[in-house]
Amino acid sequence: MTAPTRFPEMSILGVYAHPDDEQGISGTMRILIERGVRTGLVCATRGEVGEISDPTLATPESLGDVREDELRRAAAVIGIHEVHFLGYRDSGMAGSPPNDDPRAFIRADPVEAVGRIVRAIRRFQPTLVLTFDPSGVYGHPDHIAVNRWTTEAFHAVADTDKYPVAEFGHPFQPRRLYYSSVSRSLLIAFDQILRQQNLPSIFTGVDINQMGLPDEMITHRVMVAPYVALKRKSLEEHRTQMNPNTALAMISEEDWNRIRSVEMFALVAGDPLPPNADDQDLFTGLH
């Protein structure tokens, strides 16, 4: 059997909204770490208005600090090299009162938000950038915002007129931008599983037919089955978010493994894929 290709000069940066959002790429990150890729994670908020599964773990006032620590621990389980926070506040679910907090990520000045992401990209200098798809997978307003502003940052990161070196660091252009997502067919199948088991849908208030990405947009399906146990260990570091009464906590082990064994991506900008590209390798054609 041929040994896996090693990528010691390659790097990858995920840009997401909350602690635990990284779970959708954790298996892929681990595979790449084992192949010598430098990995980083940017988190726009500290998840200040997320759940508190156990009141002994945090209070509403301390939750941001606790979740920052949870993310650092979860990232350490996977082996992610760097974690950086942009300093915004969690906006909460669509239509909730935290949406109106002037500190909320969705209330940020777009130019400033893009600038913070530009600065983070220039500092880390990734070969690849990952972020949510435009639906945020399930419609969370912070997920949608981080998609929009990361996409803008990817296209503007080398523009020194708009983002001068003195303030934002030396220009750098990543090679590719990927949206990490779930195919629409899998989301619909997952929703059906929840309904069959009389569990609450996680797609309340949104049109599931507009969530995730159409199957034909998915360019990579990275099989991460050997890392499902590690992914679970990483997820369990997000203790405040591990409510045993949620649908995700109550599904069967078989369904859990099915959902967690593949991570999906769509190449949306940058260097095109070569003919017959390897859909297990986000770096295909770049080495």
Question: In CATH terms, what is the architecture?
Answer: 3-Layer(aba) Sandwich
Basic shape: globular
Assign a percent range to the helix content.
Answer: 25-40%
CATH topology: Rossmann fold
Give the name of the CATH superfamily: LmbE-like
* Order of strands, widest sheet: 3-2-1-4-5-7-6
Terminal Cα span: 21 Å
Number of helices: 9
Unreliable residue runs: none
Estimated radius of gyration: 18 Å
- Order of helices and strands, N to C? EHEHEHEHHEHEHHHE
CATH class: Alpha Beta
Could you walk me through the main structural features you see in this protein, from its secondary elements to its overall organization?
The structure is a single chain. Helix content is 32%, strand content 16%. It is globular, with a radius of gyration of 18 Å. It has one domain (11-270): LmbE-like (Rossmann fold, 3-Layer(aba) Sandwich), CATH 3.40.50.10320. A seven-stranded mixed beta sheet has the order 3-2-1-4-5-7-6, sandwiched between helices. Strand 2 (38-45), helix 2 and strand 3 form a beta-alpha-beta unit. The longest helix is centred in the first third of the chain and has 16 residues, at 63-78. Helix 2 (63-78) runs antiparallel to helix 7 and helix 3 (110-124) packs across helix 4. It contains nine helices and seven strands; from the N terminus they run E-H-E-H-E-H-E-H-H-E-H-E-H-H-H-E. The protein is of the alpha/beta class and 287 residues long.
